Amino acid sequence: MTEHVRAVQPEPDMVQLLTPEGQRVEHPDYPLDITDEQIAALYRDLVLVRRIDTEAIALQRQGELGLWASLLGQEAAQVGAGRALRKHDMAFPTYREHGVAWCRDVDPMSLLGLFRGTNLGGFNPHEHNFNMYTIVIGAQTLHATGYAMGVVRDGAVGTGDPERDTAVLAFFGDGASSQGDVNEAFVFAAAGNLPVVFFCQNNQWAISEPVTTQSRVPLYKRASGFGFPGMRIDGNDVLASLAVTRKALDDARNAQGPTLIEAFTYRMNPHTTNDDTRRYRLGSEAETWKLKDPIARVKAYLLREAKISADFFTDLEQESKRLAEHIRAGCRALPDPTPESVFEHVHVDMPNELREQRDDFAAFVSSIEEVSA
Fold first, then answer.
1. Residue 192 backbone phi and psi in degrees, to 5
2. Contact between 52 and 328 (Cβ < 8 Å)
3. What are the DSSP calls for 147-189, one per residue?
4. Beta strands 209-210 and 205-206, pairing class
5. For 65, 146, 148, 331, which has the most beta carbons within 10 A of its beta carbon?
6. CB-based contacts of 359: which residues, under 8 Å, 6+ apart?
7. Could you give the CA distance from residue 231 to residue 238 in angstroms, rounded to a whole number?
8. How far is CA 142 from the centre of its chain?
9. Segments in the chain below pLDDT 70
10. Is 27 exposed, middle or buried, given 0-12, 13-18 or 19+ CB atoms closer than 10 A?
11. CA–CA separation, 235 vs 264, rounded Å?
């Protein structure tokens, strides 16, 4: 461990523990006791999560996936928050929290299957304590709030038993902050003093709409209107994300109620692989944010301060290549979804009306195939 440097925060109210240059700094409210080996482990997470993202984009371009929502630039926010969770906590993501899924030991094939259409995600809280992706913007915040209500009813909060007390972590973007679902979740969470942490990744763009058109105040300040604390972190700083989320989750488990964390970051890639950022963003904007790359700053720290051996980086590169091979082979081995599969698993017992719709759709698809042949 190297000695921390006391430094002024980069912006008022923004928590930062690792500068873009890779220098450790302290924050009086969020001390972080972490070894260089643990920071190296976080760096491994960041690198491998970015590799998953890169491979998935390539597979979508090759026609293997119908769509992909990239997280490029947001790895630190997600990995820091994901590693702050305890095993029995519950996470509710949107559709680009690949870093959180990685921290919850979700097989990347499960994520690719969603975007290929070969699986429908499903809800199995006992497997990873990670609810699979939600496409409806902001809906997962209500799911998380409802789950937190259940935690309270089960008496699994504020007992002082770390193996029992449970927190819920809900992710959403700056665009979703304008949705009624998110604000309703805030109301219920505050009124019930629920053990839920709302984690907003403010990546500056709600598809093609900048955050400045949605809010006249920083997003984290909205929390005060609902009666619970909010804070902004440097979303490209994995240490800040870890420390602040860990503190907020601890407060939730100790019956201190909800918290809003705004991770101030940037979406380096388009909203999805079907988006074209050239229609609404200046290229210079992304170039500026490249200087704040979440992976580069951790590597700079490890090389300059931690004196991590070169073998660590060499071994990680090889692990990254093996992961990429696993993803490419695994994705191509996934079955092709049938058109009528979208009707499956909607109900335990399929209603007759839905069955008729499925059969009509299957007949329509078949007629098109016959004409094409």
1. -95, 0
2. no
3. HHHHHHHTT-SSSS-TTT---EEEEEETTGGGSHHHHHHHHHH
4. antiparallel
5. 148
6. none
7. 16
8. 17
9. 1-12, 121-126, 373
10. buried
11. 5
Contact 297, 18 (CB under 8 A): yes
> Residue 321 is which amino acid?
K
Pairing of strands 230-234, 14-15: parallel
DSSP calls for 209-245: EEGGGT-SS-GGGHHHHHTS-EEEEETT-HHHHHHHH
| DSSP conformation class of 18 | B
Can you list the pairs that 124-129 forms with residues at least 24 positions away whose Cβ atoms lie under 8 Å? Answer: 125/90, 128/101, 128/104, 129/85, 129/87, 129/88, 129/89, 129/90, 129/91, 129/104
Q: With contact defined as beta carbons under 8 Å apart, do 27 and 5 qualify? A: no
204-240 burial: b if 16+ Cβ within 10 Å, else e: bbbeeeebeeeeeebbbbbbeebebebbbbbbbbbbb
Query: What is the value of pTM for the model shown?
Result: 0.92
pLDDT at 1: 40
Report the alpha-carbon distance of residue 176 to residue 136 in Å, rounded.
10
**To which residue do tokens 């990680």 refer?**
316
List CB contacts of 174: < 8 A, sequence separation 6 or more. 200, 201, 202, 203, 204, 205, 206, 211, 214, 215, 219
Phi and psi at residue 269, in whole multiples of 5°?
A: -100, 170
- Total length of the chain: 373
Beta bridge partners of 233: 15, 263
Domain 14-333 superfamily per CATH: Thiamin diphosphate (ThDP)-binding fold, Pyr/PP domains (3.40.50.970)
Distance CA 309, CA 300 (A): 13
Q: Both tokens of residue 234?
A: 């440097």
User: For the segment 128-138, what is each residue's pLDDT rounded down to a tens digit?
Assistant: 899 999 999 99
Contact call for residues 254 and 224 (beta carbons, < 8 A): no
Please report the pLDDT score of residue 235 as a whole number: 98
